[in-house]
UniProtKB/TrEMBL annotation:
Top-rank taxon: Bacteria
Pfam family, one: DUF6036
Protein name per the record: DUF6036 domain-containing protein
Organism listed in the record: Micromonospora echinofusca
DUF6036 domain location: 19-137
Amino acid sequence: MRREELEHVLRSTGRIVKDWNVLIIGSQSVLGTIPESDLPLEATASMEVDVAFFDDPDDQKADQVDAFIGEFSPFHETYGYYAQGVSVSTAVLPDGWRDRLVLVESENTQPGRGYALDPHDCVVSKLVAGREKDTKFADALIRAGLVRPDVVAERIELLVDVHPLVMKRLRDWITAYLPEPDGC
């Protein structure tokens, strides 16, 4: 996916649901926070933008997105990419994530605007999900120097209500990227 395609999804989403504040909650949120030319292929491979709304308690807005510009819709068939409406609670995110959102707004997003996850928060969310594609995504961003392993480690510790075995898996995974502690 490219930045201009993300902007098209934001513009279309805003028009469909008449809610101009769209949360970009999945991997493609990095298109709103990191220059597209810097992103590794693994970070832009998805053709799906997960979008949520801050005020959508019954997921009606998310359902509208799926119906009009979701997978297998005429929008998807025409453009080759699509949006998936999800709930804000879909992703497990570190405490304080809302304070770190990045505004994605341009002429191309109007009348909508997006709020992208901070890249470190996005990586933590993907690591919690734990699918192979998610760990490849996280690995690619770290190897490209676009997210810092020490910040990811800090954000892992900000997770709340995550099963201890999942926390162990996350800590073990990020440890491979952290420098060895100096011996005494």
